[in-house]
Amino acid sequence: MAIDREIVEHYNSYDESQRLTGGFGNLECERTKELIQRYLPTPPATIMDIGGAGGVYSFWLASLGHNVHLIDIVPRHIEQARQASNEGPTELESIKVGDARNLDFPDEFADVVMMHGPLYHLTDRDDRLRALSEAKRVLRPSGRLLGFAITRYAGLIYGLTRGHVFDAEYLSMIREEVQTGLRKDAPSWTNTFISAYFHKPEELEEEVKEAGLIHEETLGVVGPAWLVPDLDASWADEKKRKTMIEVARMVEQESVLGPRIMIVGRKK
After folding, report:
1. Taking the domains of the chain in order of start, what are their residue ranges?
2. Contacts of 86 (CB under 8 A, 6+ apart)
3. Cα–Cα distance between 200 and 118 in angstroms, integer?
4. Backbone angles phi, psi at 211, to 5 degrees
5. Checking DSSP bridges between strand 214-220 and strand 110-115, what pairing results, if any?
6. Contacts of 252 (CB under 8 A, 6+ apart)
7. pLDDT one digit per residue (tens) for the chain, 268 residues
8. I want to staple 69 with a disulfide (CB 3.0 to 4.6 A). Which of 86, 94, 166, 169 is the partner?
9. In sequence order, which residues have a C-beta less than 8 Å from that of residue 151 and are 6 or more positions away?
10. Alpha helix (H) ranges present in 149-268?
11. Are 72 and 97 in contact (CB under 8 A)?
């Protein structure tokens, strides 16, 4: 499929393993772990990390005593995860190339399914529903989906903070995103997705429900905390770092205020 090739080509030219470094990456990673831990069963639980790239969260969860299966559509990510597994103290139950829309796992296999990239890389709604339905299929009764998406106005806010909105091509891309949620025709000078889908929180909730899952919560991951001046230096300062985390927690129920959201769905 064209979308599969596009995703693979993007991550072949961009090192996802470096994304969760620096001030913003560290803020996102710490808050993501905090939110995930609220919904984890007592270890050992069976967890599927779908679209988990090189396994940052997979290896962390395995270190907590869980049985983790990492699935990603990008072969480079799986190679990176296997190398990390060989070099590190923590092993995963399985590491494999796979498609969120057609998982090579049996029914009622997992206690928790985490879903990262599929919810924004799959620009067609039917594809996202297929992925969510597959998550439901492999979940055990009362198992939970922890799905991560990008909010509708993330590109607009980022473009404002960087001055990109004054570029005609970028502004044209943003107009499309704000109106439809679709990112396409990104300027060649940007280091961003070629295409993506950015959700409104209520749209994401509707998709989870349509896939047959019970919606429990939609939470903002970082909120507006990533907008502090000189983010890297602020994160390095322990007092400021604690304040940023507090701000993210303070407004997590207003998920539209930040660039990234987590939705919690439960299998009946």
Report:
1. 2-150+201-266, 152-198
2. none
3. 16
4. -75, -5
5. unpaired
6. 35, 219, 220, 221, 223
7. 555 776 666 565 555 555 667 789 999 999 999 999 999 999 999 999 999 999 999 999 999 999 999 999 999 999 999 999 998 888 999 999 999 999 999 999 999 999 999 999 999 999 999 999 999 999 999 999 999 999 999 999 999 999 999 999 999 999 999 999 999 888 989 888 878 999 999 999 999 999 999 999 999 999 999 999 999 999 999 999 999 999 999 999 999 999 999 999 999 9
8. 94
9. 198, 199, 200, 201, 255, 256, 258, 259, 260, 261
10. 154-162, 168-180, 201-210, 231-236, 238-250
11. yes
Q: What angle do CA 24, 29, 35 make, to 5 degrees?
A: 125
> Angle formed by the axes of helices 56-63 and 22-38, to 10°?
50
In Å, what is the CA distance from 97 to each residue of 43, 74, 81?
25, 7, 11
Task: Evaluate whether the domain defined by 2-150+201-266 bears CATH number 3.40.50.150.
Answer: yes
Pair 81, 54: CB distance under 8 Å: yes
What single letter denotes the amino acid at residue 228? V
Distance CA 214, CA 37 (A): 19
Beta strands in the chain (DSSP E): 46-50, 67-72, 94-97, 110-115, 139-150, 182-183, 196-197, 214-220, 260-266
CB 137 within 8 A of CB 131: no
Tokens read off for 44: 């050992």
Spell out the residues 6+ positions from residue 195 whose beta carbon is closer than 8 angstroms to its own: 3, 6, 123, 182, 183, 184, 186
